[in-house]
Amino acid sequence: MILALAVVLGLGLSLARHGPGVLSRITGLPLHAAWLAPVALALQVPLLRAPFCPVAEVTLPQGLFLLSQLFLLAFVWRNRRLAGIRLVGVGVLCNLLVILANGGFMPISPETLVRINPGASLEQCTIGYHYGFSKDVILVQESTRLWLLSDALVLPAPFPWPTAFSLGDLILGAGIVWLLQGARPGPAPSGAALEHVSSAVSGVHGSARRGSQNQDAKERIERRFVR
User: Fold this and answer.
1) CB 150 within 8 A of CB 107
2) Which of 56, 136, 160, 207 is most exposed, with minimal Cβ within 10 Å?
3) Please, what is the end-to-end C-alpha distance for the chain in angstroms?
4) Confidence of residue 14 (pLDDT cuts 50, 70, 90)
5) Number of DSSP helices (H) and strands (E) in the chain, helices first
6) Which of 25, 34, 43 is closest to 183 using CA atoms?
7) Rounded Cα–Cα distance for residues 95 and 99 (Å)
8) Model pTM?
């Protein structure tokens, strides 16, 4: 959810800044191996559609999810020179670090689940289970490695859909917003460059004129000899 908001925010800011030209700026981004990103998202779908269950029942979706992180890192590396992409990479690495440290899932605490599910109780949060329709595993804070990087942040009111996210998600979202500002226009030619071009053009014209004058003189001399 937080990443979808980042896309909406990035597009909104870009539209406010660039107006009707926003589409051409975004499509003008010189992305390399752009197919890596949608493939990575597709690989995450099985885990994000898996219900609340023991983690042993989602082994295959979990493996595909971990594979998706490699695709994302490859996409970041291929496009590392673009504005915002390195920030996206930092976010992906933060998430991957805490996921690998906690058995291949993003940890979320029962307290956080109660915050984003009004009316739920701590007793309903079975420790060690995959939290349905997410990439999360339910762990108590004391058992969570790198807890600060886990899904411990919550979008506050008045946001209508409570959702938890990680510090890595926040960094990744900031990178997406930055990236969606579009390709930067090329630098305008400097005065010195324009002067150099002008001098070169003048030199070419001068050479052409001199060549024409020499040809005329040669023809006049030839006509005298013929006479």
Assistant:
1) yes
2) 160
3) 94
4) very high
5) 8, 6
6) 25
7) 6
8) 0.80
Chain length of the chain: 227
Expressed as residue numbers, the domain containing 225 is 190-227
For residue 41, report the phi and psi dihedrals to the nearest 5 degrees.
-65, -40
Amino acid at 29: L
Residues 147 and 202 placed together within one structural domain of the fold: no
Cα–Cα distance for residue pair 159/1, rounded to 1 Å: 11
The b/e string for 131-150 (b: 16+ C-beta within 10 A; e otherwise) is: beebbbbbbeeeebebbebb
Question: Out of 18-22, 84-88, 210-214, which region has the weakest mean confidence (pLDDT)?
Answer: 210-214
